[in-house]
Amino acid sequence: MARAPLLQLTDISLTYGGDPVFDGLSLTIQPGDRVALVGRNGSGKSTLMKVMAGLVEPDRGEVVLSAGVSTGYMEQDPDLSGFATLGDFAAAGLPDSDAYKVEMAAEGLKFDPARPVETASGGERRRAALARLLAQAPELMLLDEPTNHLDIEAIGWLEDHLSQTRAAYVIISHDRAFLRRLTRATLWIDRGEVRRQERGFEGFEDWREAVWSAEDEARHKLDRKIKAEARWAVEGISARRKRNQGRVRALAALRAERSAQIRRQGTAAMALDSGPQSGKKVIEAKGIAKTFGDRTILRPFDLLVNRGDRVAFVGPNGAGKTTLIKMLTGEIAPDEGTVTLGTNLEVAVFDQTRSALNPDQTLWESLTGDPDMRVSGRADQVMVRGQPKHVVAYLKDFLFDDGQARAPVRSLSGGEKARLLLARLMAKPSNLLVMDEPTNDLDVETLDLLQDLLGEYDGTVLLVSHDRDFIDRVADTTVAMEGDGRATVYAGGWSDYRAQRGEDAPAAIETAPKKPEAAPEKPKSVKSGLSFTERHRLDALPAVIERLEAEIAKLSEFLAQPDLFTTAPAKFQKATEALAERQEALSVAEEEWLSLEEKAAS
């Protein structure tokens, strides 16, 4: 017998500031649904989730929660007033017998339940709100960016928890790996319309491109029909005025239909200028170490960063990633050892705390008030990579409209603040880019563009991120802060780091589904000759092999450009080295799979 839906929205319409957010929206959430809610920044994802949670009342339509169904919403900015500690807030409303659930969640999400509310950071408050929701275990969970402020270990814990729950959930997240592992359906908000596909996020981008391609084809056909009818009107209407008024009215209707179509928002017109070339050696650290009080942040550590390198720094929150980068760039001094910076460096920094943004300034003031961007004598111009540009035109490059130019920074969403910070960062030339958690709050399309820009950037990149997919796409070296002050350098991105450590790479970090033909499924008993780690490694290797094959194909295609060697010799050399590395890694992975498969069968 079919089960009743948990939540049903029917003919929902909602308007903010005179602009419709949704009109005639209908959707259903079923028991056991695991749904990714995706869309551009500003498309209304968080607003829709608040409508689902009953926190925002639509102008029209009906929101029906089935009788007896419990629902929980993870707030972006939880109100902890009235609670002494984070634990008190997280355990509110729970029976004493369920207090252990808060303790388990606090351990997994890495916050101290005894922390006083008044001294807790914004990230700790969000983790407490997430712990509260998980401990309450409602039948429907509504999660708005739950991975923000979580490190990779905590994200892994949350993935495991959600993969085992029987509850339904809807997730908004910028973390592709997180969404790929957990979701089975996708809700896509696009220009006020919500579409649903019964596939998880791994199928979203292909689906989106197919929808947009069909849309473009239909628009092209409509344009051709309008042109043909307009030509007829000009050439023949005078001779047949009375007899063809119906056709004239049809032409007007076609034009009205074309005018009513909502154009897709373009991608941000972001660009990076690598500026003057730095020396070949950008940073050389020898034996650097750091302690704060009796806590060891970094034991003696060596690192050489050459021009064009992309170095990712990974590890738990508080492990010292940002401190290490500040030592490498000369912002703070190590307790011992030396850091030698290369010549001709121009550094640009993306700060995860958004400290460069003054919430009381307008967007206009945030750009024109920056000494590095100010144009002498012009209050409406900013200097963008050496050329003056009107401040509103530059804001439009980053998808801000005219009305937002005079709005305060505090009114922006998290994704909009990230775009504004990128606008400031990209206005000036640089050859060393330091990016501390740049992916938080950015939508998928902007992340794709940022990844492409970093790939084409001729300078050097130092990246701190908990986004495993983004690290895999960008980094060619990974520095892992592994606890107790230990830092280790690994070749490649996140997946390469995990493989080199001999750890099983969870499905969440793979960039493509496993190849069923690569390793036929066998009963677990057949693999009894393997240890626990070996068994998981064998299960993970097909996806690792497929990722390497895809990277090899991409690099081979890149190197096949006939004039690449003469026009971009540095890129040619780097791609050649990367291809050799991937080919070697593929050979090693294939041999490892064969060895483990033979051991499993013995």
From TrEMBL:
A GO term for molecular function: ATP binding
Stored SUPFAM superfamilies: P-loop containing nucleoside triphosphate hydrolases
InterPro entries, per database record: AAA+_ATPase, ABC_tran_C, ABC_transporter-like_ATP-bd, ABC_transporter-like_CS, ABCF_ATPase, P-loop_NTPase, Val-tRNA_synth_C_sf
Keyword Ribonucleoprotein: no
Domain of life of the source: Bacteria
Pfam families: ABC_tran (PF00005), ABC_tran_CTD (PF16326)
Keywords: ATP-binding, Nucleotide-binding
Every ABC transporter domain range: 7-216, 283-511
ATP-binding in keyword set: yes
PANTHER family reported in the protein's UniProt record: ABC TRANSPORTER ATP-BINDING SUBUNIT, ABC TRANSPORTER DOMAIN-CONTAINING PROTEIN
Protein name: ABC-F family ATP-binding cassette domain-containing protein
Source species of the chain: Paracoccus fontiphilus
